Amino acid sequence: xxxxxxxxxxxxxxxxxxxxxxxxxxxxxxxxxxxxxxxxxxxxxxxxxxxxxxxxxxxxxxxxxxxxxxxxxxx
Length: 75
Hints:
By secondary structure, the protein is an alpha+beta fold. It has two helices and four strands.
């Protein structure tokens, strides 16, 4: 099990690996996807019922039309 600081460290490491590029629509358009998932496992102290869930945070790379962003390399 990870603590909050360890979780933040992993998240920051993932962010550091992302690539961005300036386009006509966005000064820092994402060029890579980011998917960060956290499993939550908790037990109710009164009923002893265990619940497990998964949180997924997803940021997909830009999907704008390349002709609008100015990234179209076809010439």
